[in-house]
UniProtKB/TrEMBL annotation:
Keyword Secreted part of the UniProt annotation: no
InterPro entries: AAA+_ATPase, ABC_transporter-like_ATP-bd, ABC_transporter-like_CS, ABC_Transporter_VariousFunc, P-loop_NTPase
Name of the protein this chain belongs to: ABC transporter ATP-binding protein
PROSITE patterns assigned to the protein according to its UniProt record, in alphabetical order: ABC_TRANSPORTER_1, ABC_TRANSPORTER_2
Native source species: Olivibacter oleidegradans
Annotated keywords: ATP-binding, Nucleotide-binding, Transport
Length: 233
């Protein structure tokens, strides 16, 4: 069964389609990177998958469960990492992780919390510091640790590498590859062609609400993808 499935998923505002007839499956062990210009429909897609928006027609399923009809059940399988991960600034990394794990219904001993943060790439000495001192990349790592702690099968990300420096981006790529190695599925909206080539198993290009290309990433170069992207949009 696919971790994520979209069937004829559409969203219209008045007569304008922000997303039209999206058909897509994402499996365990996949990183699907969705490219597209500003306004192409990437965030709308993520919001429909999360159940934040009601589709005009079609449906999104997570682990075979329809999102809109089973909001609570599907949320258990999903973690969302927005462009800027919102956490409590006056709590430490490990305290934030503990707090959000409990909200998701999990209580972990401190060492287990540290192991999630280790796996997400956060340095041990940083995990006791207040979140307000964290960089964007460090916040993102706490977001990934929360996804791990809540045992999400699907991790949705919106523009995860925007504003990250090259080293942090490289680290992020390694962490994502580790996650899919453990059977997670990742779906991300991005403008980062280079990074999509580096990490994706498949790449989609969206134009005016339609997924016009889906490419299996088996050796496409960043230059080739950029050319295809520019010809498409
Ligand atoms: N609440 C809304 N009411 C009307 N139109 C909307 C609404 N939300 C989004 N849209 C429109 O839907 C289209 C898709 O927007 P969306 O935010 O999904 O694009 P995007 O690909 O995520 O863009 P970006 O890269 O800038 O984040 C755009 O034309 C946008 O103006």
């Amino acid at each position: 069964m696919s971790v994520l499935k979209a069937e004829q998923l559409s969203k219209a505002y008045n007569d304008t389609f922000a997303l039209r007839n999206l058909n897509l499956s994402v499996e365990k062990g996949e990183i699907f990177c969705l490219l597209g210009q500003n306004g192409a429909g990437k965030t709308t897609t993520i919001n429909l998958i999360l159940g934040f928006l009601a589709p005009t027609s079609g449906r999104a399923l997570i682990n075979g469960i329809e999102v809109r009809q089973n909001d609570v059940a599907t949320k258990k399988h999903v973690a969302y990492i927005p462009e800027v991960v919102q956490l409590y600034g006056n709590l430490s990394g490990v305290e934030n992780l503990d707090f959000f794990s409990r909200i998701a219904g999990y209580r972990y001993p401190t060492e287990a919390l540290h192991e999630f943060l280790d796996k997400a790439g956060l340095q041990r000495e940083a995990s006791a510091r207040r979140l307000s001192t964290y960089s964007k990349g460090m916040r993102q790592k706490v977001g990934i640790a929360i996804a791990l702690a809540k045992k999400a099968d699907l991790i949705l990300m919106d523009e995860p590498t925007s504003g990250l420096d090259p080293k942090a981006t490289d680290e992020f790529t390694t962490i994502c590859k580790g996650l899919i190695g453990e059977g997670k599925a990742i779906f991300m909206a991005t403008h980062d062609i280079f990074n999509a080539v580096n990490m994706a198993t498949r790449i989609g290009i969206m134009k005016q609400g339609e997924l016009v290309h889906t490419i299996t990433n088996s050796g496409i170069t960043a230059n080739e993808l950029q050319t295809l992207y520019l010809e498409t949009i």
